[in-house]
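no rush on this but wanted to send it before i forget. theres a chain ive been looking at and ive put its sequence and its fold in token form underneath. i want to understand how the tokens follow from the sequence so walk me through it. thanks a lot i owe you, the record is right below:
>
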Amino acid sequence: MPNSLDTLLEAADSALRTIWGNPAARLDSPAKSAPSAESALSAADRSRSGALMRVNHVGEVCAQGLYNAQALTTSDPALRSQMLRAAEEETDHLRWTRDRLDSLGARPSLLNPLWYGGAFTLGLLAGRMGDAWSLGFVRETERQVEAHLDGHLDRLPPADVASRAVVERMKADEAAHAAWAQEAGARPLPPGVSTLMRMAARVMTTVAYRI
């Protein structure tokens, strides 16, 4: 595990910016190319969209914790670089979902420090098991996130085209991350682990929808 002061400071900086900041995106949000329709949404639709995008924002907070922890634990410089690159792409998602929350008049989850801390811990555990298992964790996580986002496309109000555009792009990016992990040598996780991951994700999404 890299243990230089610079590496640890980078991890701490990422945590602070993720939880209490609003990091800049490298790419423009897909919402910018979608017609703004917030004023046409009913109060109920705005509330539902805001809650769903809060859940998606929490997912991106967790992605930052996972990828940064796994980058911290690997001894392979190339894999560490790829993990950090994936974290940068997830930073785009983090900003895009936060922007949608602001546009919808919704707030981020009050439990973001808890979500980040839990994800970072899981990332450390996965990373300490070895690169193949760590990559397997990435692949399974991204596959579950992709399915989760697909479900949100069914639940988002049809008129909220901006949020739908963001979710569509995020879904494509998560699929690409899963494919990268597979090609990099991901080891399949035991079925029981995958089931536990889905159960934990269900708890997180249920709580984040409201808090």
Notes: The chain has a mean pLDDT of 85. The helical segments are 5-20, 43-73, 77-104, 112-128, 131-155, 161-183, 191-210. The CA atoms of residues 131 and 196 lie 21 Å apart.
